[in-house]
Amino acid sequence: MGYSKIFIFISIKSILVVEYFKEHQNLIKDKNIMEISSGCGLVSMAISILNANIIICTELENILECNTKLNINDNLEKNSFNNLKTEILEWGNEKDIFNIEKKYKVIDLIVCCELLYKEAPFDKLLETLIKFSKFYNRVPILFAYKKRYILQEEYLNQLKEYFDIIEIDRNEYHKDFKDKLTYQLIKIIYKK
Questions:
Q1: Measured between alpha carbons, how far is 36 from 57 in angstroms, rounded to an integer?
Q2: SS3 sequence, 20-34?
Q3: How many CA atoms, within 13 angstroms, populate the side-chain half-sphere of residue 149?
Q4: How far is C-alpha 131 from the geometric centre of its chain's CA atoms?
Q5: What percent helix, strand, coil does the chain show, rounded to 5?
Q6: Which class for 191: exposed (0-12), middle (13-18), buried (19 or more C-beta within 10 A)?
Q7: Which residues form the domain of 168?
Q8: What is the pTM of this model?
Q9: Are 57 and 27 in contact (CB under 8 A)?
Q10: Closest by Cα among 44, 121, 32, 123 to 86
Q11: DSSP-assigned letter for residue 26
C-alpha cells in the first residue's frame, strides 16, 4: 500500500515532465540528457522514445539494480532503444560524479523530478548540481516538483545563491497541468 502511494505521488511529476517534453521535443531531440534520481525510470524511458541522442538514467546503486533497470528491461526492447544508459549516482559522491563526467563529455540538459522533499539530503544534491553545472558548462537543469513544504522554499532560496531560477510559463505546460498550481516546472542555470 505504501509503495503504490509513493509511486503515484512521484508519477504525477514524472507525467508533468513527460508531457512537457512531448510538447517541446526540440528541447531533447538529438540532445544528451541526464536524469538525476530516476526512480522507476519513467521519465528517462519517455525521453529515450522522444528521440534524445543519449539519456543517462541515474540512481542509487540498490535502486538502480532492483528497480530502474528492471523497469527499463521490462518496458523497452533491448535493441530498439540503445540511447538509454544507466549510471550509479549517489548525490555528493565524488567517485560517482567523476565516473559520469569521464564517460559523458557533453550533457545538454539535466532533469530532476521531485527531488525537493523533506527527507532529501539537499546539501548533497546542491553539491552534485554545482559540480555537473561547472563541468558541463552551465548546463540547464529542469526541475519538476509539487509545492507543499516550507522547506522547499528554503531549498529554492539556497539554489538562488548559485543558480538563476526561471519559472516555466504555465502556458507551456500540458493542458492537464496548466491549472494545477501546486505542480511547478523551473529551469535553473548556474551563475558565473
A1: 7
A2: HHHHCHHHCECCEEE
A3: 13
A4: 15
A5: 45, 20, 30
A6: exposed
A7: 2-190
A8: 0.89
A9: no
A10: 44
A11: G
The end-to-end CA distance of the chain, in Å, is 46
* 131: Cα within 13 Å, side-chain hemisphere: 19
All three cell numbers of 184: 511547478
Q: How would you write the pLDDT of the chain (192 residues) with one tens digit per residue?
A: 233 333 434 567 888 899 999 999 999 999 999 999 998 888 998 888 888 999 999 999 988 888 888 888 777 665 466 788 999 999 999 999 999 999 999 999 999 988 877 677 899 999 999 999 999 999 999 998 887 777 778 888 999 999 999 999 999 988 888 888 788 899 999 997
Distance, CA of 24 to CA of 173 (rounded, Å): 10
For the chain, what is the domain count?
1
Nearest to 143 by CA among 134, 132, 156: 156
